[in-house]
């Protein structure tokens, strides 16, 4: 893929100069702070607010509660951030006319798309690492410490899930050439996959199937872990990303610049 390295460097530099990387990084850091704080103090807040009206007994918060809150927030706010990063990746270049200028140089369309998707993956990876690291630090302070190795696995699995949402939106951006349409289709895909995940058989094939195993690993509860289901979810998510990349390339090759 001629020109990939140069184009990737360009994507990462743009991510910094346009403040996409700092802004998304701050969002993930906020998620990392808020998740364990919510897990620790939500019961106290509800009790103070409702008083005697609080009739439902609330479970005692633990480090696992913080993990669940983190995974939930990453699955929602993180997914929206992934869609936002990818929605104008191709369509924005087409609207500005810069795609034709870039491809007039010795760079292939495959390298152009690969550099963009790789750049998005790196930004998501850095931001996910920041969010998980901050959440681990706050969880250590507020609850009992958990093995850091499990948190690393949680971060990797969360990153793969977010990359899948970004890849679906990236495909829409390349296929439609419209940022608005790509954002809409990415959000519809997020909702649609979340609905399909209600069925356990389908959930194991989708990015949503990575959430529960990642919590068990981070909590050190490997005895309850279904390794086969986790492997299926990893392969399914990776195949989804690869299929979206291939579909984006097929659509972009047919597009006139």
In short:
The protein is built from eleven helices and no strands.
Descriptive report:
- This protein has one domain (4-253).
- Helix 1 (4-17) crosses helix 6 and helix 3 runs parallel beside helix 7 (148-176).
- The chain is elongated.
- The two termini are 19 Å apart.
- The chain has 11 helices and no strands.
- By secondary structure, it is mainly α.
- The longest helix is centred in the middle third of the chain and has 34 residues, at 109-142.
- Helix content is 78%, strand content 0%.
**N- to C-terminal separation?**
19 Å
Note the main sheet: none
Give the CA-based shape. Answer: elongated
* Strand residue percentage: under 5%
Number of strands: 0
Provide the structure class.
mainly alpha
Give the SSE string: HHHHHHHHHHH
Query: Which spans have pLDDT < 50 for at least 5 consecutive residues?
Result: none
* Count of all domains: 1
Radius of gyration: 20 Å
Give structural attributes.
11 helices; 257 residues; mainly alpha
Write the layout of secondary structure elements.
Blueprint: H1 4-17, H2 20-50, H3 63-86, H4 91-96, H5 98-103, H6 109-142, H7 148-176, H8 179-196, H9 200-203, H10 211-218, H11 227-253
């Amino acid at each position: 893929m001629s020109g990939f390295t140069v184009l990737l460097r360009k994507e990462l530099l743009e991510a910094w100069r346009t403040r996409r990387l700092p802004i998304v990084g701050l969002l993930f850091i906020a998620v990392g702070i808020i998740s364990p704080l919510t897990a620790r103090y939500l019961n106290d807040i509800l009790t103070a607010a409702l008083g005697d009206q609080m009739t439902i007994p609330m479970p005692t918060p633990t480090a696992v509660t913080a993990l669940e809150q983190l995974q939930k927030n990453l699955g929602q706010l993180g997914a929206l951030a992934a869609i936002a990063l990818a929605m104008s990746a191709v369509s924005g270049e087409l609207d500005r006319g810069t795609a034709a200028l870039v491809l007039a140089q010795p760079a292939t369309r495959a390298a152009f798309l690969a550099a963009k998707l790789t750049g998005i993956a790196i930004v998501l990876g850095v931001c996910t690492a920041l969010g998980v690291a901050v959440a681990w630090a706050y969880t250590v302070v507020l609850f009992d410490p958990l093995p850091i190795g499990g948190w690393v696995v949680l971060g990797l699995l969360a990153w793969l899930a977010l990359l899948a949402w970004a890849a679906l939106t990236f495909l829409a951006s390349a296929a439609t050439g419209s940022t608005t349409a790509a954002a809409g289709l990415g959000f519809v895909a997020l909702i649609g996959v979340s609905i399909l995940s209600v069925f356990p058989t389908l959930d194991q094939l989708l990015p949503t199937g990575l959430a529960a195993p990642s919590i068990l690993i981070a909590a050190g509860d490997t005895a309850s872990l279904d390794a086969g289901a986790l492997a299926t979810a990893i392969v399914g998510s990776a195949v989804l990303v690869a299929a979206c990349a291939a579909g984006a390339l097929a659509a972009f090759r047919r597009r006139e610049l």
